[in-house]
Amino acid sequence: MKLKELIEILEAEILTQTQNSEMELKSACGSDLMSDVMAYAGDKDILLTGLVNPQVIRTAEMMDIKVVIFVRGKRPGEPIIDMAKEKGIVLLITGYPMFTACGKLFMKGITGGDVFFG
Q: pTM of this prediction?
């Protein structure tokens, strides 16, 4: 899925611009626990979270996540936005709750991987 499609599907507000709206995105994870993101996110392109603190950007950078989407209309402060710009991470806001946002992306072909913890 292209970044511009993701923005349209989630009716997202763009907080940090990118030169590449044609960026290809394939997989996502949704979590408010950055320790889970580090442990299980693997090679995900997108992080959906309701957490708005600098650890989100640090985790995204460490895990090579290209896009962070803040759910439930959560809005990070300017220091977090500036940090994302510096790291080249796209920040978006959607009014959808995490479950709905993840479901909308899944229905359009974004996967979460084949991990099962049963």
A: 0.93
